[in-house]
Amino acid sequence: MSLPTTLFAGILPRNSVRRFISTHSRPTLPSIEYPLSHPIYTIWAANTSLGKTLVSAGLSTSFLSSPHRKFLYLKPVQTGFPEDSDSRFVYNKYSEFFSQNRPEFSVFASNHVLKASVSASEAVSVGGFEIERDKDMSCGNGVVNLGLYEESKLQGSEMKGFSKLVCKTMYGWKEALSPHLVAERENARVEDAELLGMLKGCLGSESESEKGEILCVIETAGGVASPGPSGSLQCDLYRPFRFPAILVGDGRLGGISGTISAYESLTLRGYDVVAVIFEDHGLVNEGPLSSYLRRRVPVLVLPPIPKEMSNNLMEWFQEALSTFHSLEEIMQSNFLERTSRLRNMPRKAHDIFWWPFTQHKLVPEENVTVIDSRCGENFAVHKVNNNVDLITQQFDACASWWTQGPDATLQIELARDMGYATARYGHVMFPENVYEPALECAELLLEGVGKGWASRVYFSDNGSTAIEIALKMALRKFLFDHKIVSDDLVAKNAESRVDLKVLALRGSYHGDTLGAMEAQAPSPYTGFYQQPWYKGRGHFLDPPTVAMRDGVWKLSLPQEIETLKPSLEDLTFSLRENIFKESRDTSNLADIYHSYIWKTLQLIIDSSGSTRTGALIIEPGKTLTYAQVSFWSFLPLHLFLLAHDSCFT
C-alpha cells in the first residue's frame, strides 16, 4: 500500500506568491521610543479639507485655558507651503483667541518650520519672511534646513504663571499636491526612516525638563490612506508609533461611508481610535456612526463653520469651545486609563496567568514584559524608568517562539487577508470540505516547497499538533513499508509485536503535547512534575553546534565524534559564510559524521529486539544549526520517514 507524502502547512495569504515576490521591506527604521508622561495623539481625517487643523487649533484653545501647561502641535508633512501653513494657522488662531479672551496668565507662543524643499524655501525668501539660515542649508535629497521661526509673548498676569504653545512644521513643499507627488516633482523625497527619526526627536526635545501638563497632537496630511512623501500610506508610515487616534469625520452627504472606511483602515492596522469628531452639516450623521461604533467610541459634532469668515472664526471657536473641552476630557481620560492599565498589567498577569515553561515564583513582577503592540520584528513595550512611563522598542529575538516572520509591510497584508477570510468564511469545519483559500494555499505549497516530493497538504494550527500528526503518519507509513502490519491485521496485534521509537537530537523541543514530549530526550521539562507519563520513546544523538568565540566561528562536537579526531581546520571558520559552503559535504569531517551515524544506527539495530526506529525528527525551526543539517545529511534517510518540526506553523 502506498501512502502519500504529506506537507504540513498553516494558512498563507491570498495571492501569497505574488506578494512574496512584489513586497519589499522598508529601510531600517529608527528605534521607536516616546514618553508616556503626557498624552500624545495623532489627528487623522476621513479625507482632505475636513477640518483637522481646526480641531488642532480648537484643542489648543481648550487645553491652554489654564496656566502651567504646554500644547505641542506637530505637522510632519505640509504641502502648499508657505502659502498654506497649518502650524502657522494654529499659532495665529490661538493668539487671536487669547487676545479676545484675555486669560489671567501669559502664554509664550512659537512657530517653527524646520525643513523644506528648495522650491518652498525660495518661495519663503520671495515672500519676505525672515529666515535663520544655517551656513550650509542643504541636507540632501533636495531638502534644506529652513529655520523659519517666529515667536510672541501673549501678555497676561505674571502672577498667575504662564503656559506655552509650540507649533512645528517638520517638512514643507511648495505645491499643494499629494506629498508623494510633490516630493517627486520638487526632487525632495523624504524617506520614512528620516521622517520618523525627526518626529521622535521633536517629541523627545519638547518633553525633556518640562514641568506642568503637556498635550501633544500630531496632525497628518490629507486622509487616512493618503501617501506620505516616500509613497507609503500615512496609516502605515506612522504605524511604528501607534499613537492613539482622533478621527475627523465627514458630516456631509456620503460622509458616513467615508468616515467608517477611514475608521476601519485605522483599526485594521492596530490603531486605537479614541473619538470621532466632525462638522455639523445638518444631516445627523452622528446617529448612524454612533450605532455602527456601538457607542464604544464617542462621536462629537462641531457647529457649522460659517461661510462668511467673520471675525477670523473667533465666534466659531467660542461657540465650539464646549465641544473641544469635551474632546480634551476624552483624550485625558483615555490617556490616564491607558497608563494605569499598563502599570497594573504585570501584577494582574502575575496573579492570574499560567505561563508555559515558567517557574512562576522565580519571576518577579518587575520582570514581566508588558507588550503594547508589535510592528514587524519589534515589540513596543511599556517600561518605567525613574518613575517615568515610556514606550520603547524591543527586538523579538526569538521570533515569538520561532514562527514569526513578517516585516511591518507584510504584517499589514496578513491583517487584511485574515480580515477578509474571517469576514467571508468565519470558522469552517475542514474534514470533507473545501473552500478557496485552503485549496489555493495547498496548490501553491505543492508547486513550491513541496514540488517533487509532496503529494498532499495537511493543515495544522500549531507546531505541537503538527508534530503529533506527523509522527502518526510517519510511524504508520513505516509499518506498511516494512510489512510489519497490513490491511488484514488489526492495530492491537501490530502494537503487541513492535515498539516504535523516533530518532532525534538531544536537547530538541517539539511542543507541549504528550506525544511531542515523548519524542524528546530527558530534560527538566520532561520530569515527573512536568510530564508524569514521560518515558522517552526515542534514540537521541548529541548534535554538533557552532558559535562565535573570540571573533572566530568554532564548531563544537559531541564527545563521541571528538574521539574520531577531526582536523582543526574543519572546526574553525573565519567567516560565517564558510559554514554554509556545500564543499563541506565532501570534507574529512563529513566522512566522520557518516561513520559516526552509521555506527550509532548499527548499535541501535543490534540492541533493539522488538524495538524499531520508525521516524526521524528534523528540527529546522529552533535549535538546528547548519552543523546539525550537515550532520543529518549523512543519515540513510530511506530507512525513515521524516517528521519535520515547526514546518509552516
UniProtKB/TrEMBL annotation:
One Gene Ontology molecular-function label: pyridoxal phosphate binding
The entry's keywords: Aminotransferase, Transferase
Pfam family, one: Aminotran_3
Keyword Repeat on entry: no
GO biological process: biotin biosynthetic process
SUPFAM superfamilies on file: P-loop containing nucleoside triphosphate hydrolases (SSF52540), PLP-dependent transferases (SSF53383)
GO CC, any one term: mitochondrion
InterPro entries associated with the record: Aminotrans_3, P-loop_NTPase, PyrdxlP-dep_Trfase, PyrdxlP-dep_Trfase_major
UniProt family annotation: Belongs to the class-III pyridoxal-phosphate-dependent aminotransferase family.
Protein name, entry field: Bifunctional dethiobiotin synthetase/7,8-diamino-pelargonic acid aminotransferase, mitochondrial
Originating species: Solanum verrucosum
